[in-house]
């Protein structure tokens, strides 16, 4: 079954019905078939109220815009004989050579995608570490804090800030990898130095 008139409500309704039960135009991965239909929609996001499944599919395929040429499958010709994509496939026997070529392209696509470096989420955290009294050895307290080592934790700058009655607090920053370092765990380790540390407060927490 071929889909036509994708610039009309009738054509979009047919496509919306199809995409209600399918993630892609062909198979289980984005291919040149998706690119072809995407381009026929004239770069205009379909009405998400009238055609929610088309809009969902359109925005998903748009995220691959920089990879269109590397997606598996053959680029669809936009001529009179092949103006539409056969969304439901064909009864013809598959060509073994064509199937092999598609498999190779799909494998190359997955390898390329897997080779992309993953973005490591990090945060800049600033902590206030408060001592019990003015006689607390702040140099030793900072040494204890910086002695905490965790995979994904890097200590940064620090300073002493007066808080009254001759008492100063240690304000220290650090960069943490979000997936590896939990701030609650870090605070717990710092307050474990109970002879020096009264409390720990998070002053700021910013994603990098």
Automatic annotation (TrEMBL):
The keyword tRNA-binding belongs to this UniProt entry's keyword annotation: no
Domain Translation elongation factor EF1B beta/delta subunit guanine nucleotide exchange: 122-208
A Pfam family recorded for this sequence: EF1_GNE
Superkingdom classification of source: Eukaryota
Gene3D superfamilies given in the database record: 1.20.1050.130, 3.30.70.60
Any GO molecular function: guanyl-nucleotide exchange factor activity
Residue ranges, annotated region (Disordered): 69-99
Acidic residues composition bias: residue spans: 77-97
Elongation factor 1 beta central acidic region eukaryote domain span: 87-113
Keywords of this entry: Elongation factor, Protein biosynthesis
Gene Ontology annotations for the cellular component aspect, listed alphabetically: cytosol; eukaryotic translation elongation factor 1 complex
PANTHER family, per the entry: EF-HAND AND COILED-COIL DOMAIN-CONTAINING FAMILY MEMBER, ELONGATION FACTOR 1-BETA
Protein family membership: Belongs to the EF-1-beta/EF-1-delta family.
The name this protein goes by in its record: EF-1 guanine nucleotide exchange domain-containing protein
Protein species of origin: Gigaspora rosea
Lineage summary: Eukaryota, Fungi, Fungi incertae sedis, Mucoromycota, Glomeromycotina
């Amino acid at each position: 079954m071929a889909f036509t008139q994708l610039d009309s409500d009738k054509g979009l309704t047919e496509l919306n019905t199809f995409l209600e039960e399918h993630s892609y135009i062909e198979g289980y991965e984005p291919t040149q078939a998706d690119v072809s239909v995407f381009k026929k929609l004239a770069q205009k996001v379909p009405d998400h109220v009238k055609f929610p499944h088309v809009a969902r599919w359109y925005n998903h395929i748009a995220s691959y815009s920089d990879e269109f040429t590397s997606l598996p499958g053959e680029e669809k010709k936009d001529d009179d004989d092949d103006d539409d994509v056969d969304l439901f496939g064909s009864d013809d026997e598959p060509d073994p050579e064509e199937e092999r070529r598609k498999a190779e392209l799909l494998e190359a696509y997955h390898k390329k995608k897997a080779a992309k470096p993953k973005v490591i989420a990090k945060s800049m955290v600033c902590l206030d570490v408060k001592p019990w009294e003015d006689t607390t050895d702040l140099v030793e307290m900072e040494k204890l804090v910086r002695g905490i080592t965790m995979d994904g934790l890097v200590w940064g700058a620090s300073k002493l800030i007066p808080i009254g009655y001759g008492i100063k607090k240690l304000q220290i920053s650090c960069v943490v990898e979000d997936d590896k370092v939990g701030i609650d765990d870090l605070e717990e380790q710092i307050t474990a130095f109970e002879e020096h540390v009264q409390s720990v407060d998070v002053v700021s927490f910013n994603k990098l």
